[in-house]
């Protein structure tokens, strides 16, 4: 069998890797810094005290030179490593992954420079001595976008060597590509270097020309990880971390949570957002790998429920993807994500258990997050019962507080906002405690709380719960309005809605609607009524028969309803009944059908005609 190699069109590969792998040309600087840092790491493995410096030098004509005090390259290295795409000195041949101490591993990083440069010109001298102990000769390697390269060994008197200042190391010079000059401008270089390399442990500096013409180094890196700095006390640390969050993330945190996951070589801080965000928000975290910024948009380090924190992390054990803009989804990342989630969760539990101002503020701002978490986490649910506020007919309160208010009675909850609206006004006046379960997560949360905390006496409200809030009329009054009720029922028969009259508070409320389209509640109430012989049974029977899906329950305490029941004008009575029906449907939060809108318009027209027709002349006369 004869082995043949792929024929590769270099121009295509260079273009593909340089321009389609990375999301922005800005990463060119990160790749150059990374090569410098790795070269320095390799050199320090040879000679402990070797200098650790990277100089960024803007060139006249718009180019940029990046000089490092690293291991350097021999001509053979350059031929093998720089001129072979995908070849890296930093890969672990046995394990396939990148070697622990280095940032790079794929052997493609240098190509990213072609996003901003037409030519990469590298001068280098290897720190490793030759076979006879002699100093390695300096080399010059020039690579072009079309895949050509030139490699020369430099004579000791070659002026190109001057840049190395007689020491080992490398100088990479970029000749700007047309239209990409701004990526190489000094301010841009400083901003990129600070963003990517601000936390690097090596000395990265930009060369700047001072007013007197002399050159100076503006240091851009070397900061200790902010969470690793030794502060005089906890308060000073809190202030420093808060101000770091302002600079790096753009907000003053409500709290900060230290995180450490040894298996991933990970340390950092999770900052709690000071304001609420939608639960659908995808959280972006700032992740460093071996203190080089991977990306400020990493989404994979926390579980989705932790949308209320933003992390700044540094990890040595996690692996980057080839574009180095995200993390490779391996078992270690999975374990790290779980551990980080656990850490944030533990903070939530500790904070809520301890109480105090941070806990109060957290519940106030991030109650949605807490509800989301309580849905999937029993321990958080237990705490939520005593910390999370719910809206109810007796005001806002935690479930524990509301259960106390309900006393021996059941603590009811509705599964939707509409249901709550329908039931709330009447229940409030009766002192019945009903919790609004209509907001995001709440219905499911209340169901879970009801099942896990039976001591709360929490139960979903059904139609007969509403029935219990309404008083029967005196028999005399029943008789009095009998004919009127029959007429009213006839009016709404074509709406498939029954009419009943009860007396309840508040008197301003003319009617409530029981909407029981699936009929389940009605059947349950009916069955209950059939087996009970007390007065409730009768009321329930009254409410559930005939079993039309909707029942409009008029309030005999309302002046409007009393007037309606008393009127002898059939047209007005019909129109008023229909418009009362439609407004009650609306007030219940139910959608209006086209037929109902028509009904409303016709009824209102008639009522207005009657009202205006009677008044128009007298109004004039009154003036
Ligand atoms: N400044 C430098 N000093 C010494 N060697 C270098 C330098 N820059 C590049 N090299 C060598 O060239 C090789 C290829 O570099 P390149 O940036 O393309 O890939 P890499 O850093 O190995 O991996 P990655 O694709 O993950 O960045 C490196 O492995 C390294 O051996």
UniProtKB/TrEMBL annotation:
Record keywords: ATP-binding, Chaperone, Nucleotide-binding
GO molecular function: ATP binding; ATP hydrolysis activity; ATP-dependent protein folding chaperone; unfolded protein binding
Signal peptide as annotated in the record: none
Entry binding sites for ATP: 31, 35, 68
Family membership noted in the UniProt record: Belongs to the heat shock protein 90 family.
Record PANTHER family: HEAT SHOCK PROTEIN 90 FAMILY MEMBER (PTHR11528)
The name this protein goes by in its record: HSP90 family protein
Taxonomic placement: Bacteria, Bacillati, Actinomycetota, Actinomycetes, Propionibacteriales
């Amino acid at each position: 069998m004869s082995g043949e190699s792929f024929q590769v069109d270099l121009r295509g590969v260079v273009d593909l890797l340089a321009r389609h792998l990375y999301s922005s040309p800005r990463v060119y600087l990160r790749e150059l810094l990374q090569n410098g840092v790795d070269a320095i790491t390799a050199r320090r493995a040879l000679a402990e005290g070797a200098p650790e410096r990277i100089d960024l030098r803007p060139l006249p004509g718009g180019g940029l030179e990046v000089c490092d005090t690293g291991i350097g390259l021999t001509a053979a290295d350059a031929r093998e490593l720089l001129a072979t795409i995908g070849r890296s000195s930093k890969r672990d041949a046995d394990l396939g992954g990148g070697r622990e101490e280095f940032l790079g591993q794929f052997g493609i990083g240098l190509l990213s420079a072609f996003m901003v440069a037409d030519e990469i010109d590298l001068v280098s001298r290897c720190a490793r001595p030759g076979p006879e102990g002699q100093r390695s000769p300096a080399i010059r390697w020039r690579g072009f976008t079309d895949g050509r390269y030139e490699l020369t060994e430099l004579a000791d008197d070659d002026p190109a060597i001057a840049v190395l200042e007689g020491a080992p190391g490398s100088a990479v010079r970029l000749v700007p590509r047309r239209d990409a000059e701004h990526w190489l401008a000094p301010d841009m270089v400083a901003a990129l270097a600070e963003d990517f390399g601000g936390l690097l442990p090596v000395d990265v500096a930009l060369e700047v020309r001072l007013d007197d013409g002399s050159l100076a180094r503006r240091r851009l890196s070397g900061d200790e990880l902010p969470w690793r700095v030794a502060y005089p006390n906890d308060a000073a640390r809190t202030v420093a971390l808060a101000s770091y969050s302002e600079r790096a993330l753009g907000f003053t945190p409500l709290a900060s949570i230290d995180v450490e996951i040894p298996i991933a070589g990970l340390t950092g801080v999770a900052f709690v957002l000071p304001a609420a965000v939608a639960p659908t928000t995808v959280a972006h975290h700032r992740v460093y790998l071996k203190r080089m910024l991977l990306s400020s948009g990493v989404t994979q380090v926390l579980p989705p429920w932790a949308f209320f924190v933003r992390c700044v992390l540094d990890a040595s054990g996690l692996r980057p993807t080839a574009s180095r803009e995200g993390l490779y989804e391996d078992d270690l990342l999975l374990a790290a994500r779980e551990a980080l989630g656990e850490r944030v969760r533990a903070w939530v539990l500790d904070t809520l258990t301890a109480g105090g101002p941070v806990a109060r503020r957290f519940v106030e701002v991030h109650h949605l997050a807490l509800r989301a978490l309580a849905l999937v986490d029993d321990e958080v649910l237990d705490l939520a019962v005593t910390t999370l506020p719910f809206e109810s007919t007796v005001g806002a309160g935690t479930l524990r507080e509301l259960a106390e208010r309900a006393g021996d009675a059941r603590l009811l909850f509705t599964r939707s906002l509409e249901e709550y609206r329908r039931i709330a006004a009447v229940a409030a006046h009766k002192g019945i405690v009903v919790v609004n379960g209509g907001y995001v997560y709440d219905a499911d949360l209340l169901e879970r709380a009801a099942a896990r905390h039976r001591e709360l006496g929490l139960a979903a409200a059904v139609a007969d719960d509403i029935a219990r809030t309404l008083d029967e009329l005196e028999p005399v009054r029943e008789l009095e309005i009998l004919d009127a009720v029959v007429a009213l029922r006839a009016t709404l028969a074509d709406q498939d809605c029954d009419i009943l009259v009860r007396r309840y508070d508040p008197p301003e409320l003319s009617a409530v609607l029981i909407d029981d389209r699936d009929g389940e509640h009605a059947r349950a109430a009916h069955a209950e009524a059939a087996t009970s012989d007390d007065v409730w049974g009768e009321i329930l029977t009254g409410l559930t028969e005939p079993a039309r899906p909707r029942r409009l329950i008029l309030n005999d305490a309302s002046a409007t309803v009393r007037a309606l029941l008393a009127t002898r004008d059939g047209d007005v009575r019909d129109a008023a009944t229909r418009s009362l029906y439609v407004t009650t449907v609306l007030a219940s939060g139910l959608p209006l059908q086209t037929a109902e809108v028509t009904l409303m318009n016709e009824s209102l027209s008639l009522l207005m005609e009657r009202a205006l027709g009677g008044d128009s002349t007298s109004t004039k006369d009154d003036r």
